[in-house]
Amino acid sequence: MDDTTAAPMPRLVLVDTVDQLPGLLPLHAFQALRSCDLIVLSGPDHPLASHLDMAEERYETVPTDVGERAMGRAEMLGGLSLVDKARATWVLDRAKAVGSVGYVLGPDDTDAFTSSLGMEAAREAVEVEVVYFGLAPKGIKVLDLVKVQERLLAPDGCPWDAEQTHGSLAPYAIEEAHELAEAIAEGDPTGIAEELGDVLMQVTFHAELSEAFDIDAVAQGITDKLVRRHPHVFADVVADDAETVVANWEDIKAEEKPERTGPFDGVPSGLPAVASAAKVQSRAERLGFAWPDVNAAAEQVAEELEEVLDAEDDTRRAEEIGDLLFAVVSMARAAGTDPEQALRGAVGRFRSRFERTVDTLATEGVDPAGLTEDDWRERWTAARDAE
Fold first, then answer.
1. What does the pLDDT read at residue 288?
2. Count of CB atoms within 10 A of residue 322's CB?
3. Is 365 left (phi over 0), alpha (psi -120 to 50) or beta?
4. Using CA atoms, how far apart are residues 48 and 142, in angstroms rounded to an integer?
5. Do 211 and 301 fall into the same domain?
6. What proportions of the chain, in percent to the nearest 5, are helix, strand and coil?
7. Which residues span the membrane (predicted)?
8. Which pLDDT score is estimated for 339?
């Protein structure tokens, strides 16, 4: 009777990582590594190396000269670069030598390498187990954006990016915010996502340019602010409605910025006129100055319109038109409407109708310059009714 016992089958455990967070492993993945006789990393600069050092875990890294030492047998692995072939061979040899190897995938490990490694392990009678990371945390794609921005601002990066300053980028931030607002007004989810990306790029660009702060400081600052100003969520304050939330927010903000004593301190001077009017009115409203309802606000609009019509000269008329526009903003707010978005929508509708009218004239061979006022009114009514 044969009393010999077959040697256990060599084992290779492939541990998946998140490309953006290759130094982070969930508990189940770390436990799988600790069950192996040896942990292997793709190279000495693998992000997990320092963590394993602190945990005093035994590990090895694939030698950088492995390609020169394993060229012969490496040719058995098809479809890979010579270096990847040699790396795969070396990992399998270590598994067969020690019994079980836990290989942690690194940022440079391609799908072709890992799949071929698994297939070759089967041919070499090495048992393969794959441990997946699981659910990746939200926000990891932002790390890709930061990495791209770092690359653009590197010494050998983009010449245009290298010339930029916070001041030179400021107009782009304003432009991107307006384009985002336009996409929101159009109700286009794809456009909103794209414009949000452009806005986010402005944030990372400024953060990478600065020597006083980085993207982590920016994120930490706004995170701390949100937690502070939402005590009804993160503390024991009670807020049952949106009005109470806003009131609490303003009280906390006032405590954080005691230097702002004037009613309009903190209102950016560079806001578009309509948005600036709405912001100033909102601040005045906190102190009790506001029209009680939309009807009262509409009466003020009518009064301002009369004053426009009664103005005796251009200077006075310009002032009265400004008052009229300001009163219209008040009426919009009293009606619960964002005046900036309302006007943006009106501009969009005007553009659409006018472009459609001009296209129709071109199709008919009509010169727009030859239309009378009545002709334009008729055409305009038709374009509006066609919507």
1. 86
2. 14
3. left
4. 21
5. no
6. 60, 5, 30
7. none
8. 93
User: Does 17 share its domain with 127?
Assistant: yes
Three-point CA angle 305, 324, 274, nearest 5°: 155
Indicate if 66 and 178 belong to the same structural domain: no
Query: pLDDT by residue (tens digit) across 214-231?
Result: 999 999 999 999 999 999
DSSP summary character for residue 4: -
Residue with the two structure tokens 């040896």: 38
Is there a single domain that holds both residue 293 and residue 363? no
> How does DSSP classify residue 158?
-
Q: What average pLDDT does range 144-155 have in this prediction?
A: 95
Q: State pLDDT tens for residues 125-140.
A: 899 998 988 887 889 8
**Tokens describing residue 41:** 């990393």
pLDDT at res. 304: 94
11-15: strand order across its sheet: 59-61, 38-41, 100-104, 11-15, 127-131
Same domain, 52 and 123: yes
Asked if 158 and 97 sit in the same domain, the reply is no
* pLDDT > 80? residue 72: no
Where are the extended beta strands (E) located within 141-250? none
d(CA 113, CA 92): 13
Q: Which domain holds residue 37?
A: 11-131
